[in-house]
Amino acid sequence: MTDKTLPEKIADQIRRDILRGRFAPGSPLKERETALEMDVSRTPMREAIRILSKEGLVILRPARSPVIADPSLQDIADAIDVLRALELLSGELACRRASDGDLARIAAMQEKMAAEYDTLDTVDLFEIDMGFHTAIVEAAHNPALLGTYRAYLERLWRARYLSASQRRSRDRVLRQHGDIVEGLVARDPDKVAAAMRAHLEALEDNIRAKYEQDASEDAS
C-alpha cells in the first residue's frame, strides 16, 4: 500500500478535528494559523484544504479563508437518497461478483467492530464503520460505482459521524451489519437489500433527530 503524502496526512488530521468539533460548521479554517499549529508549511496545507473541499467538508472562498461546510438537513437528505441507491446496487453486485477473499475481509471488519465497539475512540470506531461500507462497494468490482460512492460518502462524512457518535443504537447497528454480512456470504441480494435499507433509514432518522435537537438548543 502506498504511503500517504503530507497533504493527505494533514487532510486526515483536519478531517478528524472537524468530526470531533474542533472546527465548528460555518467557522473559518485559517490556513496560516492551522499550518503553524501543525508545524507544516502553507503549501501542503493549501493542498490538504483542496482535498477537503473536494470532499465537501470545506468550502473555498475567493480571497478569504475557507469555511467548514454546514449543509442543511435537506442537503443531507438528498445525498442520503443517492447514497442509498448506490449502496443497494453495490450489495446486489457484490452478491454476484465478490470473491471469497472480499467476503472474508468484510466479515473481519464486522467482527472487529463488534469486538471493540465499547472500547474504541468514537472516531476510530467510525472509520472502521465507513471502511466496512466501502469494502462492500469495492466487492462489487465496478470502478464507476466506487468512484461515485466515495464522492457521496465524503459529502456525508460528518453527518454520518454525528449519527454514529450518539452510540445509542449499538445493538441495532451490529445486528444490521451482521445481517448484511450473512446475506453477502449466502449471496442473497434480497437479504442484503433489506438489511441495508433498514440501516440507512435508521441513519437518516438519527441525523434528523440530531439536527432538530441542535435547532431546538439554538432557539432556546
Explain what you see:
By secondary structure, the protein is mainly α. It folds into two domains: 6-68, Arc Repressor Mutant, subunit A (Orthogonal Bundle); 73-219, Four Helix Bundle (Hemerythrin (Met), subunit A), CATH 1.20.120. It has ten helices and two strands. The chain has helices at residues 6-20, 31-38, 42-54, 73-97, 100-116, 122-138, 143-155, 157-164, 170-186, 189-219, and strands spanning 58-61, 64-68. A two-stranded antiparallel sheet has the order 1-2. Strand 1 and strand 2 form a beta hairpin. Helix 5 (100-116) runs antiparallel to helix 9 (170-186) and helix 8 packs across helix 10 (189-219). The chain is globular. The mean pLDDT is 90.
- At the first level of CATH, the class of the largest domain is Mainly Alpha
Helix-strand topology string: HHHEEHHHHHHH
What's the pLDDT, averaged over the residues? 90
Beta content comes to: under 5%
Please count the helical segments: 10
**How many strand elements?**
2
| SSE class | mainly alpha
Give the biggest beta sheet: 2 strands, antiparallel
Low-confidence stretches: none
Number of domains: 2
The percentage helix is: over 70%
Cα-atom radius of gyration: 18 Å
Instruction: Report strand order across the widest sheet.
Output: 1-2
Q: In CATH terms, what is the fold-level topology of the largest domain? A: Four Helix Bundle (Hemerythrin (Met), subunit A)
CATH level-four homologous superfamily name of the largest domain: GntR ligand-binding domain-like
**Spatial shape:** globular
| CATH architecture annotation name of the largest domain | Up-down Bundle
